[in-house]
Every structure is written in structure tokens, then in C-alpha cells.
Design brief:
With about 230 residues, the chain is mainly β. The protein has helices at about 15-20, 85, 205-210, and strands at about 1-5, 30-40, 40-50, 55-65, 75-80, 90-100, 105-115, 145-155, 160-165, 170, 180-185, 190-200, 220-225.
């Protein structure tokens, strides 16, 4: 489950934020996802966000895993998403995640991704707040987007981690700035709880391709359970 509070943390002073319990009184953008393993190296899933009632279906193939003789892991991901419960504005995506893990303390990720028909969904629906949504610029005539997601996870305690990500766009439809986020994770035997902050509500490839706010920051959290 993903949960992004709809209040901008940069709006108002500390007293105003505390009065709204740092956004808890202002609604949220919620996403639910379920994924399952079809084989040891292949899994599929579905994700739904209330942002424009977006549904994304996806599949991932772990092409190879890091070993003593191979310093990198590679996974290939394909997806299709659509607004209003997959009824319109379908956006296909193809991405490759390259990762490297150093002992059990640091992990690095790079995910070049292509998203088709990005321009068809450059608006946001599903909540009652006005935000600095990226608008059209000199690239707005392009339909598609190429971006690279960059991320890292660093262990600071036996079961606690710092995480950070940034997704700059390099070609195609390119309104606004890239989405970014930082957070702290706590792992248990079955659950992972992440508290995060960032400039976007994005939880799908299409939403990431449309970028994040230039000026706003939102608090959020993720909860995952592995069976």
C-alpha cells in the first residue's frame, strides 16, 4: 500500500502544519498493489492508484542476478496502464533495472524507462486540492517520454535503511521537473514500513514520466507484506 498525504509541507508555518497533523487532515492519494511469483525469475502484478483512477498491470523478468563473478543484476519490466480503471488513455512502458549490492549495507539502482503516450495524461484527477502540476513547455508536442530512475538504499541499523530516488527525464514529453523522494525504512520478518517525502504522488511508470512539482513537498508512507 502506498499513501501520499495531499498537503504541501512547504505551505504555511510549523504551527499550521502541526494543526493539520502534517497533512493527515487533508486527504491522501492511495495506491494498492498485489504481485505474485509465477516462477523464480518471473513475477506479475497489478497496481491501482486513486490518481485519475489509474490501473497498471506489469510483469518482471529477472534476467540475471549478481554473483561473485558478475557485479550487476538485471531485471526487465513491461507494463500497461490506463486512466479511469483502464478504460482510456493507455500508456505502455518498458524498463530495465540494473542494480549492484555491496555486502549488506548499500544497494544502487538505475532504471532506464520508456513510457508511451505520456502527453495523453498530463492532468491529475481524484482529489480536491490544487497543486503545482507540471504544465506544457517546449517539449509538450512530444507524445512519449524517456527517463532514468536512480535510487539507493543504505543500511544504518540491522533492520533500518535510508532510501532516496530521483527520476530525471531525458527525451520526449518533459513538463516540470523530475520526481524525487527520500525516506527511512523499517523491516520486520514480514513487513516493511517506509516513511517518505517527495515532490510527486507518482507510483506508476506513466505518473513518474509526467514528473513532479517544482515547489511542493508531500509526506507519505508505504507498507508492504511478503508472503
Amino acid at each position: 500500500m502506498t499513501h501520499r498525504l495531499a498537503r504541501d509541507l512547504r505551505r504555511g508555518d510549523f504551527g499550521d502544519l502541526a494543526a493539520d497533523l502534517f497533512g493527515l487532515d487533508n486527504g491522501a492519494i492511495i495506491g494498492l498493489e498485489y504481485r505474485f511469483a509465477i516462477a523464480d525469475t518471473f513475477h506479475a502484478g497489478i497496481h491501482r492508484s486513486i490518481l485519475s483512477k489509474t490501473i497498471q498491470t506489469f510483469a518482471r523478468w529477472d534476467a540475471w542476478k549478481q554473483t561473485d563473478g558478475l557485479p550487476l543484476s538485471l531485471s526487465i519490466v513491461g507494463s500497461i496502464e490506463g486512466l479511469r480503471n483502464m478504460r482510456e488513455k493507455h500508456q505502455p512502458a518498458l524498463a530495465a533495472t540494473i542494480s549492484h549490492v555491496r555486502s549488506d549495507r548499500l544497494a544502487l539502482y538505475a532504471t532506464p524507462a520508456y513510457v508511451g503516450r505520456t502527453r495523453a495524461a498530463e492532468f491529475i484527477e481524484g482529489h480536491d486540492h490544487d497543486h503545482d502540476i507540471p504544465g506544457a513547455d517546449e517539449h509538450s508536442h512530444h507524445r512519449d517520454t524517456f527517463f532514468v530512475g536512480l535510487g539507493t538504499r543504505a543500511r544504518i541499523r540491522p533492520t533500518a535503511y535510508l532510501v532516496a530516488e530521483y527520476a530525471p527525464r531525458f527525451a520526449g514529453h518533459n513538463p516540470g521537473r523530475g520526481a524525487w523522494g527520500i525516506g527511512i525504512e523499517k523491516r520486520t520478518r514480514g513487513h516493511v514500513l517506509q516513511l517518505n517525502a517527495g515532490n510527486s504522488f507518482a507510483t506508476t511508470f506513466g505518473q513518474l514520466a509526467r514528473g513532479g512539482s517544482r515547489n511542493e513537498v508531500y509526506l507519505g508512507f508505504n507498507i508492504s507484506r511478503k508472503f
